[in-house]
């Protein structure tokens, strides 16, 4: 049986680097480099850096 | 409250159980009213230490973090539990100072409670000997102990919710992270907005 085709895009979780536990979920192309952006964190009420969380070193 | 000397008519109205009790333990010798006032024992800690050392009613609560009060310390409730050496209070345990053994009260706590309830009903509670079931003792103890909320005593604490227990460390982590945030953002911008970023958080 043929292997199931992987989707072109994947959902990723961008974690607030303010260590508040706040995160945003985004969809990016599988082959794209990991996402990172400055976004608002409502817990600390500031724009902070959000970095994509790795799963099993996929982003390395 | 009734006066220590009941009216003669009252005697006929009292139930047999109370009458029997008063016949055996006459109020003029045994009742709480003939006890010396508790203030008398205040300047005499030696007497308190002799009379009210480890009580058999106090189980070992040290294991639960309960801080046992100093038994030699004067307390009003302890002074209330008075026993005349000539007429030993039937509601209180006694210590045999020769053998060092405790003798239980002549009348058990459950029976004491029954008697107190009965006496209260007929308004003659003051004629009973001093005991742990008396209204006076219970009220004094309540005022003496104050608000009995678990965890508020010295050296006591409650477990609490997990978010309460970890609150301090989480806030500290957050504070540290926010201190380093401008530097992190500067580095991130310097490395091409994440193109050369190596330290990705683990999920």
TrEMBL record, chain A:
<dbReference type="InterPro" id="IPR001705">
    <property type="entry name" value="Ribosomal_bL33"/>
</dbReference>
<dbReference type="GO" id="GO:0003735">
    <property type="term" value="F:structural constituent of ribosome"/>
</dbReference>
<protein>
    <recommendedName>
        <fullName>Large ribosomal subunit protein bL33m</fullName>
    </recommendedName>
</protein>
<dbReference type="GO" id="GO:0005739">
    <property type="term" value="C:mitochondrion"/>
</dbReference>
<dbReference type="InterPro" id="IPR011332">
    <property type="entry name" value="Ribosomal_zn-bd"/>
</dbReference>
<comment type="similarity">
    <text>Belongs to the bacterial ribosomal protein bL33 family.</text>
</comment>
<dbReference type="GO" id="GO:0006412">
    <property type="term" value="P:translation"/>
</dbReference>
<keyword id="KW-0496">Mitochondrion</keyword>
<dbReference type="GO" id="GO:0005840">
    <property type="term" value="C:ribosome"/>
</dbReference>
<keyword id="KW-0687">Ribonucleoprotein</keyword>
<dbReference type="InterPro" id="IPR052008">
    <property type="entry name" value="Mitoribosomal_protein_bL33"/>
</dbReference>
<keyword id="KW-0689">Ribosomal protein</keyword>
<dbReference type="InterPro" id="IPR038584">
    <property type="entry name" value="Ribosomal_bL33_sf"/>
</dbReference>
<dbReference type="GO" id="GO:1990904">
    <property type="term" value="C:ribonucleoprotein complex"/>
</dbReference>
TrEMBL record, chain B:
<feature type="domain" description="Large ribosomal subunit protein mL59">
    <location>
        <begin position="17"/>
        <end position="190"/>
    </location>
</feature>
<feature type="region of interest" description="Disordered">
    <location>
        <begin position="29"/>
        <end position="71"/>
    </location>
</feature>
<dbReference type="Pfam" id="PF18126">
    <property type="entry name" value="Mitoc_mL59"/>
</dbReference>
<dbReference type="GO" id="GO:0005762">
    <property type="term" value="C:mitochondrial large ribosomal subunit"/>
</dbReference>
<keyword id="KW-0689">Ribosomal protein</keyword>
<keyword id="KW-0687">Ribonucleoprotein</keyword>
<protein>
    <submittedName>
        <fullName>60S ribosomal protein L25</fullName>
    </submittedName>
</protein>
<dbReference type="InterPro" id="IPR037507">
    <property type="entry name" value="Ribosomal_mL59"/>
</dbReference>
<dbReference type="InterPro" id="IPR040922">
    <property type="entry name" value="Ribosomal_mL59_dom"/>
</dbReference>
<dbReference type="GO" id="GO:0003735">
    <property type="term" value="F:structural constituent of ribosome"/>
</dbReference>
């Amino acid at each position: 049986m043929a292997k199931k085709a992987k989707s072109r895009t994947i959902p990723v979780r961008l974690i607030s680097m303010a260590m508040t536990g706040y995160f945003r979920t985004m969809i990016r192309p599988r082959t794209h480099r990991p996402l990172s952006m400055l976004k608002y964190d409502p817990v600390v009420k500031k724009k902070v850096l959000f970095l994509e969380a790795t799963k099993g070193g996929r982003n390395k | 409250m009734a006066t220590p000397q009941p009216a003669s008519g009252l005697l006929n109205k009292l139930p047999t159980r109370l009458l029997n009790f008063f016949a055996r333990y006459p109020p003029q010798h045994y009742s709480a009213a003939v006890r010396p006032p508790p203030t008398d024992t205040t300047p005499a800690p030696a007497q308190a230490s002799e009379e009210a050392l480890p009580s058999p009613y106090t189980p070992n609560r040290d294991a639960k973090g309960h801080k046992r009060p100093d038994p030699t310390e004067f307390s009003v409730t302890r002074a209330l539990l008075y026993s005349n050496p000539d007429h030993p209070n039937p509601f209180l345990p006694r210590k045999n100072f020769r053998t060092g053994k405790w003798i239980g009260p002549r009348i058990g706590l459950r029976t004491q409670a029954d008697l107190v309830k009965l006496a209260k009903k007929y308004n003659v509670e003051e004629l009973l000997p001093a005991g742990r079931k008396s209204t006076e003792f219970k009220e004094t103890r309540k005022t003496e102990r104050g608000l009995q909320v678990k965890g508020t005593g010295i050296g006591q604490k409650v477990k609490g919710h997990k978010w309460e227990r970890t609150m301090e460390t989480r806030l500290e982590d957050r504070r540290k992270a926010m201190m380093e945030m401008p530097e992190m953002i500067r580095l991130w911008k310097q490395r091409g907005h994440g193109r050369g970023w190596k330290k990705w958080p683990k999920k």
